[in-house]
Amino acid sequence: MDVLCRDEEGQGIMCGQEICVVVAYEGIYRGALAYSAFGDDCVKRYHVLVVEDNLINRTIAVSFLENYGFELAEASSGEEAVKLVHGTRYDMIFMDQVMPGMNGMETAAVIRQECGDNGKTPVIVALTSADVYQMRETFLQCGFQDILEKPLTQDKVDGILRKWFPDMGSQDIARMGEEDTGFAQIRIPGIDVEEARKNHPGDVGKYIQILEIYYIDSKRKLAYLQELLAAEDYRTYGIEVHALKSASASIGAMTLSAQAKAQEKAVNEGNYAFVREEGTGLLACYRELGEAVRDFLDRRQEQAGIQVQGMDRTMLRRELEAALLSLEHFRSRECTNRIEDVLKHKLEASHRNQVQGILEELKVYEDDNAERLLRDMLQDMEKEEVK
After folding, report:
1. Centroid of chain to Cα 168
2. Which residue, 228, 210, 236, is CA-closest to 98?
């Protein structure tokens, strides 16, 4: 059966018998890529939904699933997942358990009970860092059919997919890439590179992208965790450190992951004195790790080299206007590419900082914020020219 998709430019693509990969964030379409991952072995196009409130964990899950040629969608909350399932019949749903608002069990129950046939057909897989063996029966009673323990690895994802999709092909997709020697060049205090290599086999490029998002997210998350501790909002704090635990483990930051695990355990046990006493240590470790990741990324960018030629104000304004136009037409990837190209040129320090801030918003899919920053920068440049 032919399926009409839309590419990153918003144009239609007749995918035919190829696999259409659709990437969305918070229910917003973010482009499609058509290709055949399994050749003649592929007998069905699978629709898969990832439900995870934490951006890092969601990005990691999607990065593993992208290897299979599924049609992918993402939701950042249980409520959003229910809306998506109402409108789309998914073959599999990967569902985080600990989320603000509706947790995974509540969301799975609503999907099964209120989404009609769309809620009856998908295999729902719990994503959890809890004791799988102790919680298995509880998850199964709430509408889940399987459990995947965090932190996720390509092997774990591959195993669960082949268990439930036995007809998806015989290729060993989990080991498609050759061993990537780039991991040997990574030196970041606080990160166990061997753990990182195990979680992201043969793909140092995706790992670097995840590190970029981890660093950007850490700046936001640090301030939020501090606010939660100051307000003694331990319930929300517990949810946030739960996400930090698995996200940190996924990038190989095992010490920080262990600290977050201890904080989560203390919250669950009501040991708030421990949370207050040790929370400052966790925040300090988190801050140090973020700075170490930033230093690594900066060194990597310097080694790649910046183009010698500068970019005058007229050219800079023209590129920013083009980037804004791309964003206004929902071509986020095109906008990101333009902004990255701008940063390859020599810029005034103030302009470089502004453009870097725009790129960071794009990296974490905060397109509205990026659009606002672009408009502000263009207005600032216009005022400077008037002077």
Report:
1. 25
2. 236
Distance CA 200, CA 210 (A): 10
What is the total residue count of the chain? 387
Residue 129 near residue 260 (C-beta atoms within 8 A)? no
Nearest in space to 51 (alpha carbons), one of 115, 7, 106, 130: 106
What's the pTM value of the predicted model, to 2 decimals?
Answer: 0.71
Summarised one tens digit per residue, pLDDT across range 66-104 is 888 889 999 999 999 999 999 999 999 999 988 888 999
Cβ atoms of 273 and 188 within 8 Å: the answer is: no
Token pair in block for residue 60 = 């990691």
Q: How confident is the model over 271-289, as pLDDT tens digits? A: 999 999 999 999 999 999 9
pLDDT of residue 174: 42
What is the predicted pLDDT for the residue at 23? 35
How far apart are the C-alpha atoms of 190 and 76, rounded to whole Å?
A: 28
Cβ distance 74 to 26 under 8 Å? Answer: yes
| Pairing of β 71-75 and β 47-51 | parallel
Show the tokens assigned to 250: 């996924």
For tokens 């920068």, the residue is 377
Q: Give the span between the Cα atoms of 379 and 386, in whole angstroms.
A: 11
Q: How far is CA 176 from the centre of its chain?
A: 22
User: Token digits for 66?
Assistant: 């992208």
Q: End-to-end CA distance of the chain, in Å? A: 61
Question: What are the backbone dihedrals phi and psi of residue 150, each rounded to the nearest 5 degrees, phi first?
Answer: -85, 155
Question: What pLDDT is recorded for position 154?
Answer: 84
Angle subtended by helix axes 272-304 and 204-230, to nearest 10: 140
Pairing of strands 12-14, 4-6: antiparallel
**Could you give the dihedral angle defined by the CA atoms of residues 320, 324, 327 and 333, in that order, rounded to the nearest 10 degrees?**
-10
The encoded tokens of residue 269 equal 């046990």
State the residue for tokens 């809306």.
Answer: 83
How much is the pLDDT for 40?
39
Q: What is the C-alpha to C-alpha distance for residues 267 and 368, in angstroms, rounded to an integer?
A: 34
Cβ pair 81, 53 in contact under 8 A: no
Q: Which two tokens stand for residue 248?
A: 């940190």
